[in-house]
Automatic annotation (TrEMBL):
Main location as per UniProt: other
Basic and acidic residues composition-biased segments: 1-19
Region (Disordered): 1-23
Keywords: Cell projection, Cilium
InterPro entries tied to this protein: Intra-flagellar_transport_57
Classification of source organism: Eukaryota, Metazoa, Chordata, Craniata, Vertebrata
UniProt-annotated location(s): Cell projection, Cilium
Family statement: Belongs to the IFT57 family.
Organism: Horornis vulcanius
Annotated protein name in UniProt: Intraflagellar transport protein 57 homolog
The keyword Calcium is annotated on this UniProt entry: no
GO cellular component, one term: intraciliary transport particle B
Length: 114
């Protein structure tokens, strides 16, 4: 009972604002993006994924800042398709002209099947 009573007044983790999480919370997305980029580099994404789509390498903060949502969405979907294929599942990479809802639906469906 005591533990439950203490939790009643607490907010859920996702409901906290940046000020309630601490001063570094606003920069957490940049740290996550740098970690993601390091992992992609270990998987040789520049040679295997980017050359296929004739794209340039990601910057350290590519997904952390909303600069060009259409381009960022396509890059995300192309990387997701490449990672799914790398995991051993055949997955056709998206085209820029594909319907975004259909593309993300295919990606999510494939990930659920894992």
């Amino acid at each position: 009972e005591e533990g439950a009573a203490g939790r009643r007044g607490e907010r859920e983790r996702g409901d906290e604002g940046p000020a309630e999480r601490g001063p570094g919370a606003a920069f957490h997305m940049f740290v996550l993006m740098e970690d993601l980029l390091d992992k992609l580099k270990l998987l040789n994404y520049e040679e295997e994924a980017l050359r296929r789509h004739n794209m340039r390498p990601l910057s350290r903060h590519y997904f952390a800042l909303p600069t060009n949502p259409g381009e960022q969405f396509f890059m995300f979907c192309a990387l997701a398709a490449w990672l799914i294929s790398k995991a051993g599942r055949p997955f056709e990479p998206p085209q820029e002209s594909d319907d975004p809802n259909a593309v993300i639906s295919k990606v999510l469906s494939e990930l659920r099947s894992f």
